[in-house]
Amino acid sequence: MEPNPVLPSLGQEPELLKTVLNKEGFRFTSQRQKILDLFQSSALGHHLSAEEIQRQLLDQGEKISFSTIYRALHVMVRLDLLQELELAEGRKYYELNTPCMDQHHHLVCVHCGAVQEFDEATMTQVGQSESTARGFSLLNCTFTVYGICPSCQSLLS
Amino acid sequence: MEPNPVLPSLGQEPELLKTVLNKEGFRFTSQRQKILDLFQSSALGHHLSAEEIQRQLLDQGEKISFSTIYRALHVMVRLDLLQELELAEGRKYYELNTPCMDQHHHLVCVHCGAVQEFDEATMTQVGQSESTARGFSLLNCTFTVYGICPSCQSLLS
DNA sequence: GCTTTATTGAAAATCATTTTCGCTATTCAT
DNA sequence: ATGAATAGCGAAAATGATTTTCAATAAAGC
After folding, report:
1. Could you write out the DSSP letters of every residue in chain B?
2. A100-157 is classed in which CATH architecture?
3. Is the shortest CB-to-strand distance from B20 to strand C under 7 Å?
4. What is the pTM of this model?
């Protein structure tokens, strides 16, 4: 739950978000800053859905519409500030983007939905070599493992 | 486009699909057989969406509703005959399920949507070790690499 | 065969996400 | 700074894939 102290995050300073947005013709708004702040005040690698973002902002007294949230998320994905994740169930999640070689991957419990992150340098190496082998320029790679977590296993048995 | 001659596929013989369905209390129907046939008459690893399934069956003169298609797909995923894939864009794809250690992975062009498959034993090994390390029972793992394919690169430059 | 009940198709319902539109607020040049 | 141009905002309507409802049909098993 601590802001990550290691990675020099782009939006940590308001100035930077504004600069990055304006560089591409987008405008800086308080809503966009608040959404980015949410990600930065969570643990590194914490993922949020649009609904969770709205709820968390409401909890801290900020009313925001879904259209604004989705537009902000798309802009920040386009600017490489965020990464879009498909953690099952027809809902998209977003998290702070990290350089490709530092990417982490996900272990999802299909029963309770719990998600754990793990690092594995091998993954991105394989992604890199497979894509260059086929002439693709690599943008991103995701490795997701689905299983049943220990506590659900005991519930089910 | 050839039916795969190597893997002894469960639904190849109609008897088998019926047996597998009945074993779990589901009923054998011609619609389910036709859907499974579609997958088996395509190349191994070929993936289809519900819409593509409906179109292909219509093309061969078979009318089928989306409710039936989705229900059949879910049943077959539950029976481990098919595997559900999330190849971006809010649409689900399905393909014949292969034993976990033979699983292949996907390289997706985010521009034109082309998908290539590749095998990589390393992936499933990592998935296995990560999940057992955390006490998860492994069900499935997917590795998806996003990039831009050679032809789109030349179009864009 | 006959009964039970899972399955089907058509249409309505969901649900996350996207778009529309009138209004507001940011940007940039003056 | 001031103002014109326009990106972004919120509310509500629209979209599009998937799911559910419900009456009619057809497998399964006795």
Report:
1. -PPPSSS--TTSSHHHHHHHHHHTT----HHHHHHHHHHHTSPTT--EEHHHHHHHHHHTT----HHHHHHHHHHHHHTTSEEEE--STT--EEEE---GGG-EEEEEETTT--EEEEE-HHHHHHHHHHHHHTTPEEEEEEEEEEEE-HHHHHHH-
2. 2-Layer Sandwich (3.30)
3. no
4. 0.70
